[in-house]
Amino acid sequence: MDEFVTTLINGLAKSPTELTDKNKKKIQEYLPVPSDFDILWADINSFGGYPSGIVLTNKGIVSKAPRPTIYEKKIAEKNERVYQIPYQVILWEYFEPSNFEYEKRKDGNCFAIKREGILVTIFKDKSLLTFFKN
After folding, report:
1. H helical segments located in 1-116
2. For the chain, how long is the longest CA-to-CA vector?
3. pLDDT in tens, the chain (134 residues)
4. Of 34, 78, 90, 127, which residue is least crowded by CB atoms under 10 Å?
5. Cis previous bond, 32, omega within 30
6. Phi, psi of 94 (to 5 degrees)
């Protein structure tokens, strides 16, 4: 495994989503994470309804944005578009943290990753935010 990925994983807190075989299978199915990617760390918001979150693998980052919130839907009703990148795979060789914006969500419970103002995903683990900002 690449030294960068090893350093990243070692610098993070324990995976917020327990990485049991059962959960890894759900993650690969629901987000979806390609079957040839080894899941090393995950922050999944929910497995029910509309799963979303961020997964770090041996080959890259897989993210899935949540459905728009009620607030975001109200903004969209005012003819202001609310954009999201629903699903994205970023291989480590193309990942550059400075290409993304990071912010605390208005509800204060989690953090958001955006690219050019467009929501990529949300997550709860502060150690991931610290890594991306450094």
Report:
1. 3-11, 21-30, 70-77
2. 48
3. 578 788 888 889 999 999 999 999 999 998 889 999 999 999 998 777 788 899 999 999 999 888 765 455 555 555 555 556 688 899 998 888 888 888 888 777 788 888 888 888 888 888 888 877 76
4. 78
5. yes
6. -110, 0
Nearby residues of 18 by Cβ (< 8 Å), 6 or more positions away: none
Cα distances from 87 to residues 41, 44, 107, in angstroms, run: 17, 13, 23
Q: How far is CA 26 from CA 56, 83, 125, in A?
A: 15, 26, 20
Provide the pLDDT for residue 23.
93
* Tokens standing for residue 1: 């495994």
Measured distance CA(2)–CA(129) in Å, rounded: 21
3-state SS assignment for residue 48: coil
Q: Report the amino acid identity of residue 25.
A: K
